[in-house]
Write a structure and sequence with these properties.
The chain is an alpha+beta fold and 352 residues long. It contains five helices and 22 strands. Pfam families: Beta-barrel_RND_2, BSH_RND, HH_MFP_RND, YknX_C.
């Protein structure tokens, strides 16, 4: 009899335990835990930020006006130079020989001019005495004019050679910083080949790349703030100066230049900057992409009311970084499910 009661109690206890586990599993299954987000216009309005680089407003690519072998480099990258400073020097030996040649030509032309002038003066007296004809005098007058033209031509060639000799030294046309060097001493360069990049002192800008779907936001920006990675706590106001008319062939983005209204004193070329853009227009609602639940061709979201979910259709706009803009269907204060939306059904109870 005791053995019978012991078996009965064991079976009863096992049944109670199984019932409790089943109820717990049922509760856990029927009332899932979900991640939610409360819609707020101020909190969910995305202001995109773009990484950029500090650049100079005026960047000049310097080159020689004559070709030759570089024999001396007087600057390094980052060197601050003043207007008139010599930056690079080309071997002037060949150019000097050209100058010597043209100088000799000038001397020869001057000698021919003196001879032609003496002959003209002599034959003018003979013409006055009636010893020669007018035709003979005209020949010597023409010879004098030819000699004068030859002097002018030789003088011009000599001046051109002197200019080429001066071009053998590349000088800075304004105060600035050497941002790039493309050649080394001993290298032979041609006329017009870029050898240095000079960033002029003065205005500094931020160069950023904008995707094509954000161009209007940049153009209509009401406020632009620029922060710098190397200068924590410092913020500068920016203004859009220019936007490239065509997209880059590789990145398919548009280059834009943001001028700084109040640049920091410690700002250096090449620093990394972040440009935050606040665009004008109506405030938008952005929700995570994971919150969308597609039924057919209609996007929906699960809205939680009194711990129950209901499917609500929405109208979507622009897509951002793991977020989507909601143009219609949601209002400030709505609570939506932003994770696990595929496991819910209409009217289901949820735990937030």
């Amino acid at each position: 009899m005791k053995k019978y009661y012991r078996n009965y109690l064991s079976l009863l206890l096992a049944a109670l335990l199984l019932t409790g586990c089943s109820q717990t599993a049922s509760i856990s299954e029927d009332i899932p835990l979900v991640r939610t987000q409360t819609i707020s216009l101020g909190a969910n309005n995305q202001n995109p930020g773009y990484s950029g680089e500090v650049r100079g407003r005026y960047e000049t690519a310097l080159s020689f006006q004559t070709g030759g072998k570089i024999i001396q480099r007087q600057v390094e990258a980052g060197t601050h130079v003043k207007a008139g400073d010599v930056l690079l020097t080309i071997d002037p030996k060949d150019i000097q020989q050209t100058v010597n040649l043209t100088a000799a030509q000038v001397a020869s032309a001057d000698s021919q001019l003196s001879l032609a002038q003496s002959n003209l003066a002599r034959y003018e007296k003979l013409y006055e005495q009636g010893a020669i004809s007018r035709a003979q005098l005209d020949q010597y007058q023409n010879a004098y004019e030819v000699a004068q033209a030859a002097v002018n031509q030789a003088s011009a060639q000599y001046a051109q050679g002197n200019n080429q000799l001066n071009y053998s030294q590349l000088t800075a046309d304004s105060d600035g910083v050497i941002a790039g060097i493309n050649v080394e001493a001993g290298q032979v360069v041609s006329a017009g080949q870029t050898v240095l990049t000079l960033v002029k002192d003065g205005m500094r800008e931020i160069e950023i790349n904008i995707p094509e779907n954000k161009l209007e936001e940049l153009k209509n920006a009401s406020h632009i703030q620029v922060t710098f990675w190397a200068l924590p706590g410092i913020t500068s106001e920016g203004k859009v100066r220019e936007i490239a008319p065509m997209a880059d062939k590789v990145t398919r983005t548009y280059k834009a230049r943001i001028s700084l209204v109040n640049p920091p004193a410690d700002l250096q070329l090449g620093m990394t900057a972040t440009v935050n853009i606040n665009h004008t227009g109506n405030q938008s609602i952005f929700i995570p992409l994971a919150a969308l639940y597609q039924t057919g061709d209609t996007p929906n979201v699960w809205v939680v009311t009194d711990n129950q979910v209901a499917l609500r259709p929405v109208k979507v706009g622009a897509f951002g970084d793991n977020a989507v803009e909601i143009l219609d269907g949601l209002h400030e204060g709505d609570v939506i499910v932003c994770a696990g939306v595929q496991k819910l059904h209409e009217g289901q109870k949820v735990r937030l």
